[in-house]
Design goal:
Shape of chain B: flat
Order of helices and strands of chain B: HHH
Distance between the termini of chain B: 48 Å
Structural class of chain B: mainly alpha
Helix content of chain B: over 70%
Radius of gyration of chain B: 15 Å
Oligomer: heterodimer
Number of strands of chain B: 0
Helix content of chain A: 25-40%
Radius of gyration of chain A: 30 Å
Strand content of chain B: under 5%
Chain lengths: 416, 82
Amino acid sequence: MVTVLEKEFFLSEILGRSVYLKSERVGRLDDFVIVETGKLPEVSHLVVGRSYGYPSLLLPWEKIKLISNTEIVADVDRIADFEKPVPDSAILLKAHILDKKILDMDDHEVEVVYDVKLALQNHKLYASEVDFSRNRLLRRMGLKKLATFFANHHEKSATVSWMYVQPLPEKIGMFKGHVKLNVLKENIHDIHPVDLADILEELDGEQRLAVFNELEPELASDTLEEVEPRVQRELISAIKRQRAAQLINEMSPAQAADILAILPGAEAEELLKLIDQDSAPKVQQIIAKHDENILLYATQDFIKLPPITLAEGVIGDYRQLARGKDVVMYVYVVDEHDTLLGVVDVRELIMADDDQTLAEIMTDNVISLGPEETLRDAIEMFERYSFRAIPISDETDHILGVVSFTNIRGIKPRLD
Amino acid sequence: MKLGRAYKLAALAARHKAKAIVLLEKGDHEGARKEEIEYLDCVENIPSKHRLEVGPFLDASLQAKLTSMAKERSNGSGKHSA
């Protein structure tokens, strides 16, 4: 039966502790081997590093008799019986979990494990919690005072039960550290594609691909639409052509066009041949539209007013001003030469004091499109800024028109 | 959109100037002085190349504000007398 002086301790606190076989010092604790038990993973072996030239020891947990604040004592007769390498299939706490990215299944966020809390229950040792807080990292670096300061003043404890975390794969096909891969497979489908997209964007290339490959086609397709173009390109290039085509077939022609448009020409051509041939011409047509000049989609029916106009005047006449206009949620502020000076969101107008002029409340740093820009540029801008309309102005800020989100919605339904 | 910025600063300057005038009328010299400083800061921040262009706008804004304030005050006193 093992005697442990502290019932709970952190992995970083015990690593490197001297290990004795009865009274003979044999080395230092290098790592713990854990096994999945259904709930919390249980420590099955201790990996003991020895001096140069001696093989490491793999001591079963049952052989451990004492864990004190300074030493670990094991009770074995023949040291040679435990001189064996760690099996490739073993899951190691330090090597595979510590400092690695894991998925917080509760918050759907990717975090880095800065420490693991171990707890003794019924004479067995379990990895009970993981700690994402930076003060654990500071502690490990020996900066205890700084860590305590941060813990007291800035950072809350970020310890999460092991039950809610999922270690992530390090390499494609290599699920070391995946003590709960089945949990990932079951739970990943409950995560919204937008959250999954955020998770994928935070992962490294191989981890990202490994997680993406776990997704069912429909979810993979929805997630692919949500990730940023750089990641879309990377994923499409990395997965098999047939799977890429399958995912694209799950999308509407407009969504498919959006994905194909960001790929290198040859790759897009190849995929166009593989996707559903009924929708391929539609997709091609939409891709061609992406290169059309944005002025073709612009309207002249928008509200423009001089900067001196008072808020109360605009609110009072709003129904009349907005009648027959395509863009009614923004008021464009222009001078007598139609130079775009700023823009006022109608919501800001409602909040303004009656005696405030449009110039006072307008945003003067206006995001606008140039007359040479394309529908693709506009789509990117709508995605980036989430505006409902974007003005088009020339190099002298002369307003040429406004492209509204509604006008291009048919081309890009996923912006809905 | 530099011109837009100039217009915005001119509009803010007009607001501070209008406030300064109202405070002065009320006898709050300290408050008026602070508003006057804010007004000068705004005017100073208008890029010099646009200052001439937005000058008439500043004057017109100030006039519009004072008219609006006066209207508000007369409405307010009207309400009281009613």
